[in-house]
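User: Okay, second chain of the day. Same drill as before: sequence in, structure tokens out.
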Amino acid sequence: MTRRSFLAIAASASALAQDVKAAERIPYGKSAQQFGNIFLPRGAGPHPAVLFIHGGFWRNSVGVAQAAPSCAALASAGAAVWSIEYRRLGDPGADWAALSDDIVRGAQHLTPVASRYNLDLKRVIVVGHSAGGQLALWLAAQQAIDLRGVVALAAISDLRRAYALQLDGGVVGELLGGSPDRVPQRYAAASPMELLPIPVPQRVLHGTADGVVPFEMSQRFAKASKNAKLIALAGAGHLDPIDPRSKVWPTVRKSILDWEF
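Assistant: Same drill. Structure tokens below.
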């Protein structure tokens, strides 16, 4: 799939979010990209919490709005969702160091958010889609916050493999500043495949018809991980796992909420 085709389907997914409103937008830093959207379920709580990390090949052409329909659907099902934005390629000063720092800071800001909205910090999972799946798995490996589990949706879980496939025109090389041969230490520090074993349980969901990130990447990651379950989404494409209208959404929702309730 070409980048133009990917952007077209990403724009379609973002259009679905136009009428979806978060309860509040909350900054976790001074940069314009350092904020999160909180989606709240009904009731007083305490609510289980989902930390949601959107994808988009780490580029600023896709933003947090793409995740809004998924976040709203999960909130309707009873979970509070903290959906974070972060500096991405194309933003001022954005590189892997800045991007990964934002992920940790945004995740840790869940603590004051939890105090404000009565969230249960003993029932937190992280969900990430595509590049956000890489970030979710990476965050779990850092053990920066307490997590019950990780749900990785169509995740770019092996950065060396992603570089070899030249996904999105070689974006991994842009993100990490070179090839695996040139900067192997950066791949070792950022790639979930090289961070195994990850102590937090993982559920790896991937569409078998994904034309953006190949299904085999999740197959290989789940086989290498001692703590992961692969859930194949038959016939699903790249954006189906984050589309509440898709046939696979009930499976995705169940995989997330099983850990919450």
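The longest strand covers residues 119-129.

User: Thanks, on to the next one.
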